[in-house]
Amino acid sequence: RLRGYRPVIESPLGPGLLTQRGFTSPNHGANQPPEPAKTQLSETAMPQTAARNEFNPFVNAQLQFDDAAKVLKLTENQITLIKEPRRAVECKLPVRMDNGEIRLFTAYRVHHNIMRGPAKGGIRFHPDVSLDEVKALATWMTFKCACVNIPFGGGKGGIVCDPYKLSRNELESLTRRYVSDFFEMFGPDRDVPAPDVGSDPQIMAWFMDTYSMHHRDHMPAVVTGKPLEIGGSQGRGEATALGVVFTTKKAARALGIDLVDARVAIQGFGNAGSHCASLLAKEGARIIAISDISGAYVNRDGINVGAAIDHVKKNRTLADFDRAGYAEKLANPLELLELDVDILIPAALENQITTENAPRVRTRILAEAANGPCTTEASRMLTKQGVFIIPDILCNAGGVTVSYLEWVQNRTGYYWTREAVLKDMQRILDEAFDNVYATSKQHEVSMRVAAFVVAIDRVARVSEIRGLYA
Ligand code: NAD
Fewer CB within 10 Å, N or C, the chain? Predict the structure, then answer.
């Protein structure tokens, strides 16, 4: 997947095992065209270079940065200091599989920026993980934490694997090896991971245990999204979705949309998507379509969300949900994104709405539960079409906000009630939404540009105050 692209990679395993080139310089890779990220959509309709760039999440993240940097009139030096990821590490993790075979898994950890606090960002377990994807996700984490004003920088990790095809033993070995090989990058004051696509609280528990064993101390604050029994926070499981619902309610109020009976379509039915469905159904909204890796399911009278959640608990995916008589299956799952709805929630992966399908998107609010579900160009098109986008770095920030509260609880050793956690989270997100909304009005820019303006301004100020150590 990285053919033709030579990132600057530092390996804690030392030279010889991987190409060692030292830390990234602020402008690394500026002249190297990145490889395109994998996409599920056809690229044939577009000129090749444009298509390659449109589907590269890191290119998209950088374009989003540029749009806001223009509004802020940042100097070249300011841009040099905060635009690029500072550290990108690749390791090959050897794991003994259940059949005795030893397999090597490619894994990454990226620190984008740690000016405002320790790097914060999940670990993705997915077959399509690439370095550019992890760099994009780390970039978005820096600006997400800054946008909602929590004291973290941005990081992200990924392991190229299909967690659904690994046994529990294999998954545990892979997780522990990840912690061990990237050990020096982590720490409660250095880099605090969390779950992302394909990872869950159990994986965070193995992470916390491995790190603590190496460190010879009890270290719950090194990772968030843990089970409650070992220092997880009340409310963390549904936090991302709750944040989506809080920000969606605010957007609906601004647009005069009543959530009761509002038509909602949700792509992705994992942690973020399934909780969004049940929380919005509780608000009285009508969930008319849901989807996951098995396909998309529609019922215009409203899907029975409880039945869908039970189905996934039993079968791991929504496969055959239509046969149970609850919904009809769409021939092309991407058509879910084009249904006539009031609220569309992409909650799966990047690059789902592109210049190809953006003209057919018919929603009033696009609530980005996923990171980077819209390419930058598609997002500009949707804004022109009058779609109100709640950008990912604001919309899905409920997860990292409760992760922050979990980290605070771990560090103080005092644990809060669910009500206290969620009240604090809502206060943080409400303030962030109001700030971004006011900024979008002030500069007459989209909510996405405004969210980046708010965030980049905070990172730039901190960089200025701390100064450059040289
Ligand atoms: P998850 O692994 O729990 O669920 C992902 C879901 O997407 C699964 O239902 C999967 O089947 C589905 N999916 C995968 N490919 C798909 C496709 N092509 N079409 C339709 N569905 C597809 O992951 P998650 O934690 O819910 O994360 C989803 C998104 O939300 C990601 O972009 C992630 O970065 C973002 N996010 C998650 C959190 C969190 O706390 N979990 C926080 C912030 C952002």
Answer: C
